[in-house]
Amino acid sequence: MAVQNLIVKVQKRNRALVRFDADHIRRAIFRAAESIGGFRSDFLPGINEQIFQTHNTDQSLATFLADVAVVCLNSDPHHLISNFPPTIETIQDEVLHALRSYGFQNTADAFECYRWGRHWLREGALTPAQFVANGFPVDRMWRTLEENRRLGVDTVARLNETVRSGRIKAVIEESLAAYEASLDEAAKKIMARLGVVDPLRMIWISGPSSSGKTTTTMKLTQRLEKEGLKFLMLNLDDYFWSLVEHPTDWLNDRNYETPEALDFQLLNQHLRALLNGETIEKPVYSFKEGRRVATKPVKLGRDQVLLLDCLHGFYPPITEGISSALQFRLFLETQNMLYEGDGSALRLTHFTDVRLIRRMLRDTHHRNHSALRTILHWHYVREGELFSILPLMGLADHVINSGFPFDLPALKPFFAGDKSLLPPPEALAEYGGFLDARIRFERVRALLKSVEGFTPGQVADSQFIPGDAVIREFIGGSTIKIPHNE
């Protein structure tokens, strides 16, 4: 379907005006889809199946979606004035709007991660070798899939059979051993950085929401303290802006998932002061009052290393002016690879959905937030990840996979039966136009329904799932103190 386009020019990032070519949009959308194996992963019955029926090739789908973006751009009369055309950033915003409006969520994520990765590359925050394109580390993902295949848990069907047969205990032990070995490797890398000319002064543990940063931080600290290291842990939640500076949206929700939710200018100033041996007046934030209520003097000892657990720990403005030689960056992600059903459709489950399920459970038990509220808020979580977390993972000195084959069976009992925390479908009726929430809800519900869960007794048994396992941070029973669960 041809669309009318009246836009003549586009403004480049250097403000130069060049001829507008809609084919650039089509090619960018096609490349984003191609990077994740094509548009087929975005096929959603009841949402965009008619589009797939009309456009039966990826090239045709890319043309249709590019046309939608062009229509959106033409709807703004300012864009039709040749000397005040849309900018590159405006065009990219409309591409994302077009993709998400029709349920092409995976393609949109790939496009957005690539977009911001290129941004950080232009800013000099990344080298070409650190650029992670669409945010999916293919080599690591396929190594995980091969390991799951060896363990017999690479498909939902095989995972279910492993749970039913009782063989899952061996899988739990092997996957936890691999995680512990990766932690050991991280500790060795850190120790190797201590005896150099510019000794290590800061350790960042970063990763997206509910990736297990707290448990990992505590376990890594234990290892390093045995080697004689001493730490100063800085609670970065104290750098949140006051509640009144976080405006609510149409859902009466606030976006705490962006790095701008923190006063990162003050944080950067304080980090540099601490490294210079100065005493800072660290803010003390009251979540009950929604504001900073006091300050506390803090100084980094000569024999101490700063330890920082932060969603946006790799965000360049936070560490501006601080040499990378003084920092060690550890990155976490729940990259457990699992095919839907028996694997014949070659459709992978979304490992990011495991984090959503983890957070639903944590928010319900420890934040007094319903699972519905978490689902409605998750678009903010994902937006923050695609801007300042996933595109920057290439900065990591070490990456740990904090996703496990037994996560879903361990989480299932909390989302099954009469006491299920998952909201009923009718709970989303009030938000009928919120496509992002609907897609995530239906996908998570189908995934949980397909998985064979552990029994409540198995979940509670620390001999079955060890008390220091990452999943204990969410299902309870952790033998590690979890500050945000207190």
What number of domains? 2
Number of helices: 16
DSSP strand count: 9
Low-confidence stretches: none
Strand order of the largest sheet: 4-7-3-8-9
Give the fraction of residues assigned to helices.
40-55%
Describe what this molecule looks like in 3D.
The protein is 43% helix and 10% strand. By secondary structure, it is an alpha/beta fold. The longest helix is centred in the middle third of the chain and has 25 residues, at 168-192. Helix 3 (58-74) packs across helix 4 and helix 5 packs parallel to helix 12. The chain contains 16 helices and 9 strands. A hairpin with a 5-residue loop joins strand 1 and strand 2 (17-19). The protein starts with 8 loop residues before the first strand and ends in an 11-residue tail after the last helix.
Question: How is the topology of this model organized?
Answer:
Elements lengths: L8 E3 L5 E3 L2 H13 L14 H6 L3 H17 L13 H14 L3 H19 L14 H14 L4 H10 L2 H25 L9 E5 L6 H14 L3 E4 L30 H12 L3 E8 L4 E9 L4 E6 L17 E7 L17 H16 L4 H18 L9 E4 L5 H5 L23 H16 L5 H5 L11 H4 L11
Helix pairs in contact: 1-3, 1-5, 3-4, 4-5, 5-12, 8-9, 11-12, 12-14
What features would you highlight for this structure?
single chain; 486 residues; Rossmann fold; 2 domains; five-stranded parallel sheet; two-stranded antiparallel ribbon
